Structure formats: structure tokens, C-alpha cells
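stuck on this chain:
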Amino acid sequence: MQLLLAMPALFCSLALTPPAAVDVEIRVGGSSWATIDDDGTIRIGGSSVGKFDSDGTVRKSGSSIGKVESDGTIRRGGSSIGKIQRDGIIRRSGSQIGRIDSDGTIRKAGSSWGSASRCSDHDARRGVAAVLVFFRSDFF
């Protein structure tokens, strides 16, 4: 009987659980384009499209599509395709194509391309790089 009486309280507490907090917001052309939630969920236009795992694995529909290793090496299918350096420089096949500045400015070919909130450390930049590389074909 006590369990039955406790059930409505349990359901109410579950219904009031807030959504995952946004850890990083990525803006392009002044508009919000993508977010990375604090649990690694990647959202584009508000919809979940993938996940950035704590070990750097990038997932789309649950399947691994690549990885951004702790040293910044970006891999697709196990092969190195680029790197996000600790200073924010993004390289593809060894050549600099852009950077993520400490203030969050995202640059492509030297010009401001977008911005990312809360990405002053290397781990946050790895997440932003993962989204740009694997979910934004016009950047990488």
C-alpha cells in the first residue's frame, strides 16, 4: 500500500527532472547552430544527432563515426585526418585550416566563422572540433 501511495510522488519527481544542461553552444552567422550537453549529447537545431563520449569517441545514431583523442588527434575509421592542438589550431592533413580561440571565436582560413561558449580549455575545444569535423561538412 505504501508503495502505491509513493508512486505519484515518484512520477512527479521524474516529470520535473530538468533537461541536461548545455555545456557548450556553437553559433554560426550569429545564430545558435549546435550544442554539446554536459553529458556529451550533441544537438543540432535542438534535436539530438550524436554524442561526444568522455574518451573522445564521436557517435551518430549510437554508432562510432570517429574520435578526437586526448592529444587532439582526429580520427575517422582509425586513420588520422587532422588535429586540434592545445592552442586551438585545427589542422587537416598537417595544414592549418582554422582555430578555436580562447575567447570562443571559431576561425576558418583566418576569418571569423562562428563562436563557441565555454571552450577555453583543451577538452572543450576537442568537443567543438568533433562537432565541426563530423557534423559540419563546410568547415572541415
The chain has one domain: 20-135. The first strand starts at residue 22 and ends at 28. The chain has two helices and twelve strands.
